[in-house]
């Protein structure tokens, strides 16, 4: 079995604020994700879940606060300046290198339509990490097998079901050997009968100790796979805890109201 990561993957979100114009979408987010753990993020539409995920790998620049991965600031570097410390934005090249430590799986798969499943998985490790194509291809075949698609290597995305496309997207994320996998509603675009096969793959990954942050409305998945459940509303984390606490004995009325709607 190919190692998916060689690194721990501890994520720390500290005092993060983010606005779009006058709308403050993240209003002071604090969150710690331990290496090898699974965090499920729940919350109503518009509560800031996607913005939080995108901020974690610096697809969004936060206005205040910071994100760290294994103690290293994401998107910035600390440099001493006249006796004090100042933050400097990372150069594009360093940012890209840092970003490859996060794998991102989107709601709409975002596969390259003109590439086969195998080529989709091989592309980034070769072009962004400069690894040898032959070696990456062998690993990509293993990864496709791991998500149950060994026989689909030569097929293009349009010939695959949504569930199969999302499993290719997961293999593609894993091919970068990320320290942390970020999933933004990975099953929301799927027909109901295809949700289970994708959640099954994510659960298998969870058991291998991959650090994951998963935004989803799938409460059953949260119960089975999550070490911690985070409930967000209106740009804040309302409560955080183990699934049995947040899902079965929520402390806040807003969490209860949300759960009553999705359960
Ligand atoms: P969620 O994923 O929980 O549904 P989002 O993080 O996508 O929430 O969005 C939170 C709020 O921020 C929403 O009101 C959304 O319209 C707004 N928003 C998100 N991205 C942008 C953007 N790039 N520009 C302006 N507003 C945005
Ligand atoms: Mg979203």
Please tag this protein with its features.
cell membrane; 4-stranded antiparallel sheet; binds adenosine-5'-diphosphate; 6-stranded mixed sheet; disordered N terminus; binds magnesium ion; alpha/beta; globular
Overall description:
- Belongs to the ABC transporter superfamily.
- It is a peripheral membrane protein.
- It is found in: Cell membrane.
- It catalyses: a polar amino acid(out) + ATP + H2O = a polar amino acid(in) + ADP + phosphate + H(+).
- Residues 11-259 form the ABC transporter domain.
- The protein has 263 residues and is of the alpha/beta class.
- It has a domain at 112-177.
- Helix content is 36%, strand content 27%.
- The protein has nine helices and twelve strands.
- It has helices at 49-56, 92-99, 117-127, 133-146, 162-175, 192-207, 219-225, 243-248, 253-262, and strands at residues 11-20, 23-33, 38-42, 64-69, 72-73, 76-81, 84-89, 102-105, 180-184, 211-215, 228-233, 236-241.
- It has a six-stranded mixed beta sheet, with helices on both faces. A four-stranded antiparallel beta sheet has the order 2-1-4-5, covered by helices on one side.
- A hairpin with a 2-residue loop joins β11 and β12.
- The longest helix is centred in the last third of the chain and has 16 residues, at 192-207.
- The chain is globular, with a radius of gyration of 19 Å.
- The model is unreliable at 1-5 (pLDDT under 50).
- The structure holds adenosine-5'-diphosphate (ADP) and magnesium ion.
- Residues 49-50, 184-185 line the site of magnesium ion.
């Amino acid at each position: 079995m190919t190692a998916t990561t060689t690194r721990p993957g501890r994520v720390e979100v500290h005092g993060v604020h983010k606005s779009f114009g006058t709308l403050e979408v993240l209003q002071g987010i604090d969150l710690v994700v331990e290496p090898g753990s699974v965090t499920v993020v729940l919350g109503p539409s518009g509560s800031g879940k996607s913005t939080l995920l995108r901020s974690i790998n610096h697809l969004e620049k936060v206005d205040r606060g910071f994100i760290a991965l294994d103690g290293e600031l994401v998107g910035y570097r600390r440099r001493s300046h006249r006796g004090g410390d100042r933050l400097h934005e990372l150069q594009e090249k360093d940012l890209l290198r840092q970003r490859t430590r996060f794998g991102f799986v989107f709601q709409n798969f975002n596969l390259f339509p003109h590439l086969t499943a195998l080529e989709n998985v091989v592309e980034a490790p070769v072009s962004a990490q400069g690894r040898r194509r032959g070696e990456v291809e062998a690993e990509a075949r293993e990864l496709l097998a791991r998500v149950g698609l060994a026989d689909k290597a030569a097929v293009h995305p349009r010939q695959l079901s949504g569930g199969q496309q999302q499993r290719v997207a997961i293999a593609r994320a894993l091919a970068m050997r990320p320290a942390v996998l970020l999933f933004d509603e990975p099953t929301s675009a799927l027909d109901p009968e295809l949700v289970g096969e994708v959640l099954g793959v994510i659960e298998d990954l969870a058991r291998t100790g991959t650090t994951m942050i998963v935004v989803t409305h799938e409460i059953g998945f949260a119960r089975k796979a999550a070490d911690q459940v985070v409930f967000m509303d209106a740009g804040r984390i309302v409560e955080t805890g183990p699934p049995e606490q947040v899902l079965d004995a929520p402390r806040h009325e807003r969490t209860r109201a949300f759960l009553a709607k999705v359960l």
